Amino acid sequence: MHELFVALGVAVASVVFVREARRRGALNEQSLVTVAGALVGGAVGMRLAGFAETLDLGELWLYGSRSILGGLTGAYVGVLVAKKAIRYQGKTGDLFAPAVALGMAVGRIGCHLTEAPGRPTTLPWGVHAPPTTPECPACLTGQPMHPSFVYEIVFHLAAFALIMWARDRLTQPGELFTLYVAGYAYFRFLVEFTRANETVWLDLTRPQWFLVPGMLLISIRLWYGYRRGFYDPLLARRKVRT
Q1: Measuring CA to CA, which residue among 79, 95, 59, 117 is closest to residue 176?
Q2: C-beta separation of 116 from 196 below 8 A
Q3: What is the model's pTM?
């Protein structure tokens, strides 16, 4: 079930990418090569993301972590490598932003159906999962848990809608992708407090520690874009003439 929805998410993302590339007049062999780079890099990144948890690389590759963060990082690196290999200078981030957002929403449905939902909660929308769910102590005791993957589905659907609204308003290439990555990084850090992942230090999980340096860098990048006026069309901010 998990793999089915991951495959559906990849298919949806590919369709959105092609439609967006066609709309922008950027559908060509080079842009399609970047898609291939993203797919290969994402697949490798998902498997290697759990390397910090085990020294058995063979076991990791066969059965290991299918980390979304590792997949996204691998996909990003895969695109860079593909563009470098074919000497493609075009910007592709804004093509990937809506595709990744909608694809992630679909893929997370599989996570919700097959993985431990989240930490125990007393909130009225807490969910239950079968006691056979792997690595889920709360499932054995029948406790209601945060539907953390549903939170992510809602976030990515909202992000997709906002990207579609903003895509013709932002004129600086690459800023749609920057805003999406920033939004997901901050959101994922916060939603980890509802996830069932093991904490390792200072009551933070491995994904949160993975995100800390990234959030610092993306914050600097957002401040740079704000100072340069990249987001003025979204903020209704007008430059003051002197």
Answers
A1: 95
A2: yes
A3: 0.82
Tokens in use for 214? 């990234």
DSSP per-residue string spanning 118-174: -SB--STT-B---TTSTT-HHHHHT--B--HHHHHHHHHHHHHHHHHHHTTT--STT
Tell me the C-alpha distance between 72 and 93, whole Å: 13
**Distance between CA atoms of residues 21 and 28, nearest Å:** 8
Chain segment 20-76, per-residue pLDDT in tens: 988 888 777 777 787 777 777 666 766 665 554 444 444 333 333 456 666 677 677
For residue 176 the two structure tokens come to 């749609």
CB 82 within 8 A of CB 36: yes
Token digits of residue 18: 């092609």
- Give the residues across from 204 on adjacent strands: 201
Within 10 angstroms of residue 192's Cβ, the number of other Cβ atoms is 21
**CB half-sphere exposure, 138, CA atoms < 13 A:** 21
Read off φ and ψ for residue 205, nearest 5 degrees. Answer: -90, 170
Quickly count: other Cβ atoms within 10 Å of residue 49's Cβ.
Answer: 24
- Residue 238 amino acid letter: R
* 134 in Cβ contact with 114 (< 8 Å): no
Which two three-digit tokens encode residue 63?
A: 């059965």
* Gap between the Cα atoms of 81 and 133, Å rounded: 38
